[in-house]
C-alpha cells in the first residue's frame, strides 16, 4: 500500500528494494519470533547482509562499500523495518548508519582499512558509546575521561543503553580529553572489544526491541593506542552532532516504516473481523480513525523525505531532521496505540504483531535524541533567528 | 560459452490478480511486476555455469515495451553480462515469441538457451518447445538438474516427470527449460545493482527482425476462479455423511 514516491526513488532504488524485501521475507521474518524470544539474533546474519552489500550502502567503494545515496539507505531501512520487530533493524542500522559512519567520515585510511572494511563485509560489528548513566541528552556533560599517557590514552568511565553491546567488536566511544571543558573537551576513540579493562557490565532487559542487544559498558584504565583517536582531539562533540543528522533521519524513517506495517496489519484485521453484523472496518468511527492514521503517517513519511532531500543537498538539515524525528516518532506511537485498540483483546496478546510493535515503538521518542531535545533544536536552530 | 536466457515481465505472484469486469484482461493498476520466477531460475543456472567454467557470457533477452528494462536491469544486477530488449507493444502468442527468439538466436549464436518452463501469467508452457522446433535443436524441458560435460560439448539434464526422474543428454547447441527445483536464485547485491547501470541493454525493434508475428491465437475471455466458501467443522462422521449427501450432494 506504500504510495509510490517516484520523485526520489529511481529504478535502481526499486530494484534494491525488491532484493531487501525478498531477504526480509525469506531470511528475517521466519525467524524473528525466535530471535525476539532469545533476545539476540545470530551474528552470522551480519555476514549474510555483508554479502548482499547491505552494510556498505553509503560507505566508500575503496573499502568495499557502494557509495550509494541517502535514498538507497532509506530503501534499506524501510524494508528492514517490515520484519515486524524494531530490535533487529535497530541493531543493524546502528551498525551501518549510526556508528561505523564515525569511522567512514573521520577515520584515517589505516583506520578505515582495519575497521571499516570488515564492518562492510559483516565480519566486524560496530557500536556507538555516547550515553552515560548520568545522562544522555546533555552530551556535553559526559564524564568518561581519556587521559593522554605517552603513546596512548587511558579511558575511564561507563556507558549505558549501548546498542550492539553483545555483538560488537569495535566501539566508537566519546570521552573527555579535557574534563574541565564542556563540548570542546570531547574526543572520539575506537575501542576494540578485547582491550584489557573494557567490559560489558550487563546486558539490559528492555520493554521492547528484544532482538537488539543493549548493554552497559565499563572502562577501567582501558589503554588505547594514540592512533585510535578518531579525527582530531576536542572535535568529538561536533562529530557526534554531525552523525546525529543521519541517525535521526533514519530513526524517523524506522518509526514511520514500522508504523506502516502495523497500519497495514490493522487494515487487514479490521476488514476481516466482524462485530455487530459488519466488518470492524465498516464502523465509521473506526474507518475515520484509520483515515486519520494513514494521512498522518503519509505526512510523516513525506517529512522524512523532505529532510533527506535537505540532507542530500549538503545544507544544514538539523531543523528539518529534528522535525522529521519529532513528528514521525510521535505519529508512530499514536498509530501503535490505535492499532492495538482496533485489534480488541487480540491486540493485547503476544501472538499479534501489533502487541510487539506497541512495545518496540515506545523508545523512538527517547533514543537517539528525545522528543524534547528535538524541540530544543527546532527552537534554537529553526525558530530563534532572523526571519 | 555463451548462454542466452529469456526474461519475461510478469505480475508479482504475491499480488492479487483481478479480472476486468468485461473479461478482456486483468486490472493492471497497482500491480507490481517481477521477472518470471522460472526465468529467474534459468538465469541463476546460467550464472552458475559461467561461474563454474570461470569464463563465458550470459546474455538476457526480453520482448516487450520499454518498461521491461526494469526486469532486464534486475537480471544484469544478478550478474548477466548484457541484455537485448526486443521492442514490441503488441500482445504476442507463444509461436510469435518463439519466432522472434529464433531470430535472436540466429544472430547471437549461443551454445545454450535457458528458459523458464512456463511464464506464471499465461502458463502456456510452449515457447521453449516451439523455439527448439523452429531451430531444429534438441530440448530438455522441466530441468531439475543440469550437468555440463567436461569438454563443454554436451549436457545431461535431469527432468521431473510423473512418478520419478528422467535423465537425458544431448549435444550442444540446445534448449533447456527450468523447473522449480533446479536451484534457488540469488538476490542481486547492491554492488551488482550499481554495476548493472553500466551494462549494455541493446534495443532492437521486433518489426525489424523479419519474424512472423501474426497471431494464431486470440484470448476470448478471462474469468476469475469461483470463490471458495469457508469450510466448516463437523462433530461426527454421521453429520459429515449427512452434509455430503444433503448439502454437497456428492454421495
Ligand atoms: C533502545 C535504546 C537504544 C539506545 N542505543 C544507544 C546507543 O547505541 N548509543 C548511545 O550512546 N546511546 C543509546 N541510547 C541512549 C539514548 O540516546 C538516550 O536514552 C537518550 O539520549 C536520552 O538520554 P537519557 O536516557 O539519559 O535521558 P535524560 O537525558 O536523563 O532525559 C530524561 C528526560 O528529560 C528530558 N530532558 C532532558 N533534557 C531536557 C531539556 N533540556 N529540556 C527538556 N527536557 C529535557 C528528556 O527528553 C527525557 O524525557 C539508546 C537508548 C535506547 C532506549
Ligand atoms: C487482559 C484481558 C482480560 C480479559 N478478561 C476477560 C474475562 O475474564 N472474561 C471475558 O469474557 N472476556 C475477557 N476479556 C475480553 C474483553 O472483554 C474483550 O477483548 C473486549 O470486550 C473486546 O472484544 P474483542 O477483543 O472481541 O474485540 P472486538 O469486539 O472484535 O473489537 C475490535 C475493535 O472494534 C471495535 N468495535 C467493535 N464494535 C464496534 C462498534 N459497533 N463501533 C465501533 N467500534 C467497534 C472495538 O472497540 C475494538 O476496538 C479480556 C480481555 C483482555 C485484554
Summarize this entry quickly.
The complex is a heterodimer of chains A (387) and B (251). Chain A is an alpha+beta fold and 387 residues long.
Protein model, in words:
By secondary structure, chain A is α+β, with helices and mostly antiparallel strands. Chain A folds into 3 domains: about 120 residues, Orthogonal Bundle (Butyryl-Coa Dehydrogenase, subunit A, domain 1); about 110 residues, Butyryl-CoA Dehydrogenase, subunit A, domain 2; about 150 residues, Up-down Bundle (Butyryl-CoA Dehydrogenase, subunit A, domain 3), CATH 1.20.140.10. In chain A, about 50% of the residues lie in helices and about 15% in strands. Chain A has 11 helices and 10 strands. In chain A, the strands form 3 sheets. Chain A has a 4-stranded mixed sheet, covered by helices on one side. In chain A, helix 1 runs parallel beside helix 4 and helix 8 runs antiparallel to helix 9. Chain A starts with 10 loop residues before the first helix and ends with a helix. The mean pLDDT of chain A is about 95. By secondary structure, chain B is an alpha/beta fold. Chain B has a single domain, classed as HUPs (Rossmann fold, 3-Layer(aba) Sandwich). Chain B contains 6 helices and 11 strands. In chain B, the strands form 2 sheets. Chain B has a 9-stranded mixed sheet with strand order 9-8-7-10-6-1-4-5-11, with helices on both faces. A two-stranded antiparallel sheet of chain B has the order 2-3. In chain B, a hairpin with a 2-residue loop joins strand 8 and strand 9. In chain B, helix 2 crosses helix 5 and helix 3 crosses helix 4. Chain B is globular. Chain B starts with a strand and ends in a 5-residue tail after the last helix. The model of chain B has no long low-confidence stretch (mean pLDDT about 95). Chains A and B meet through helix 1 of A and helix 2 and helix 5 of B.
Distance from N terminus to C terminus of chain B (CA atoms, Å) equals 60 Å
Q: CATH-wise, what's the superfamily of chain B?
A: HUPs
- Global outline of chain B: globular
Mind telling me the CATH class of chain B?
Alpha Beta
Please list the strands of the largest sheet of chain A in the order they lie side by side.
Answer: 1-4-5-8
Low-confidence stretches of chain B: none
Give the structural class of chain B: alpha/beta
Total separate domains of chain B? 1
- As residue ranges, the low-confidence spans of chain A are none
Q: Count helical runs of chain B.
A: 6
Report how far the terminal alpha carbons of chain A are from each other. 39 Å
Q: Gyration radius of chain B, to the nearest Å?
A: 21 Å
Count of helical regions of chain A: 11
